[in-house]
Amino acid sequence: MDIKKKEDELFDKWMAQDEIKCFIKDGCPSPDAYSKSELKIIFILKDANMGAKYILSNPGPYEQREELRTEPGAWWKKIRNWCVPILNPKIKWEQVKSKSVKESLAPFAFMQLKKAGGGGSVQNETLIDFARKYKEYIRAQIAIYQPDFIVCCGVGEIVFKEVFSETASSSMSTPNGVGYWTIRLNGLPDEKITHIIDFCHPSARFGEKAAGTVAFGLSQAINFLKNQSAE
Description:
The protein is 46% helix and 14% strand.
């Protein structure tokens, strides 16, 4: 069964359980590119900034996978800046910013922790409640991608504590100071080992001067863990 079919079946089951306004159908914009990528990496964000006006007039599901596959909004340039150095750690920063957003996102998957469309900000308490209520669905979606790395963007503690705490290791740090946990996706001894990266949100106000440092910091952390696992 292909990735998109698995996603769609999970989303149908999820939406049948509860009516979630503006349910975000997220995940893998290009299953073929993701499957061919050497590293399987998903980003978990907070929620999609759809705006109250949009949600009131469009309460049904929103197909974010299609947006990312065809015409990502301007905000996704911030994620492009992180994706490119992960797969090309020796690239120059100016080259990173010139890369196509759509093509740069293709080898990755992207999840919103809260599937209901949101606004410009969301309280941690709301995210925690959602993660607790839909823990099994969140885990099921993550399992579809069998990721080597789960990059948590401002939601690392929530994903660790509410979704994977019973299977995760103690918190550790890479040499450049990026926190992470090591888990087995379903908690079984023979299950795939995955690293949860505790990283900042792309909208964090670190400024353009630090954007490259942040992007390459994530790349360095992932490459350290990749090389460590290979030893």
